[in-house]
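FIELD: query
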Amino acid sequence: MRESYKMMLILLIIGVICGGLLSLVNGVTQPVIEARAKAEFQEAMGTFFPDVERAEEEVIGGENYYLCYDAADQFIGVVGNVKAAGYGGEISYDLAVNAAGDIVGIRISEHGETAGIGDVIAKDTFQERIIGLNYADPIEAGVDVDTITGATVSTGGMISSIRRVMNVIGENFL
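FIELD: result
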């Protein structure tokens, strides 16, 4: 009996040490991960709008929208840093819309979709179907954007989310 208590105490101590080490490592790596994600977003924003000089952040419904301005302080577009529901969980992406209401870019920053099937959302063949659509377009699965067989949850979730984000952008910024 005494031996089993000794084993439990040893396991408890090992668990506490491992938990503390994991917390320490997370504390060191988290700022690095966040800085890298911010740098990747800034790079994407520059790709979407090469003339961007400054951006103002607004939060709507828990999602971030960046209003982009050029050197003459003219509004050139909005980049939404938003989320969609996919088959493998949440899909984080950036959607760039110019001042005329046209989608000029999309970047998938994080997803858990099935490799070879649901990850089609990150491929040019899917994204090219989205780029160029306007706020006034229906942006509905099967209407002006087809879902992809085998990946209907992923592509359908993205299409629904893009329509929702376009509504937010149109109502608030255009």
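FIELD: remark
The first helix runs from residue 2 to 48.
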